[in-house]
Amino acid sequence: MLSSSLPLYRGDVTEDGLLEPFRVAAMDNVSQEVVTRLKQTPGIALTDTPEQAQGMLIRDKSKFPDLAAFERFRALMYLIRVGVGVDNISMDAASRAGVATLNTPGASTQPVAQRALAFILSWAARLKEGTQSLQEGRWDKGRDARVEPIDLSEKTLGIVGFGRIGQTLHRLAKPLFARVLYADIRDVPVADAQRVPLEELLEQSHIVSIHTADTTLTPELLARMRDDGLLVNTARGKAVSKEGLLAKMHGGLSYGSDVFWDEKKGDDMFKDEPTRLIVKQDRFAGTPHTAADDRVTKARLGREAAQRMTDFALHGIVNPDSIPGHTVPKIDAGVRSKPGYRFVLTHASVKQQLQRATTELGERGFNIQNFHNAEEDRNGNPHKLAMTSFDLGADTGRENARGVLDTIAQEVGAYKKRLMFFGS
Question: Averaged over 302-310, what is the pLDDT?
Fold first, then answer.
């Protein structure tokens, strides 16, 4: 009963004082279910003109490598990558363009962790070797050590990157191993896994599974691994040095991977000699980046993306799960309980100017409510983007509300701005 009495988002107030729905472009053949969900959401209008979109959903085909790519889309305020990776988006360029970013890793966590475990179990069971011997008409049990399975109960598993997927792999695999080590910039409180430096993890682990895009195993690091071990990569192809890996595989290391170095080239990626030689190794097992490519997971990824776009379109909520590595952390002003206006701006980090502007507006009689400000915190990025949202009552009036928005936008040098109206 309470929710039915809450005011609803009625549109963005234009410079002419009119109300327009939030415009969204669905690119790269985003699933029809996503398109249907957005079409059926009051307050959202799908547009076939991406240059006019305030929100955009993309997969891996659309590229935003630099500021020039963003300048095509002057109205764009929220860019969501449907899926795990954000390699096709320059976060520095997005920050400088004033665009909030997000991806949707949640639905892919379990299947990617399961794919890593599948590589581990296949290697331990010697499935590839056993299949090959049978196909060649040989019964090698007891006469060829290559088909003899490996007992994991006395082995150590090392997980590089202990985020969602790394922790899920730990949960799935821990009962099989004597111990689990992990390397991460954070100390994660887990009773049955030990955090160690990366070098120590590589030296002590029989199996190493990579679950971070922020680490590259150089030839020097790969040299620290056991020659008879297994390296699993379901993170990024570039997380492993091709040349270093090939040298290590010649020494006995096995490699299982769902990701590769130049996937965007398709078949042409095999023109690269190190890549071609790696996949032809007897100790290689791989899949063509399909860990999260099943129908159910793709549908879940789409639903997650549609919900996150709806959160922003109807409430001004960004990154509600505080997924790291994006241009803006969580900003959530909540659901409006009374009719009125909500202001959303992206701008550079200018706290003093922002405070001065809001103080001045307060002195002029505007009662600013529900003020929220969040800034990105990404190491190594010279530009810091901020997002601010706040509310004013319905008695402010559209003309005054536009004036307030323009005053603050000018004071902080806003990149992008919205004036949302909520009514009965």
Answer: 95
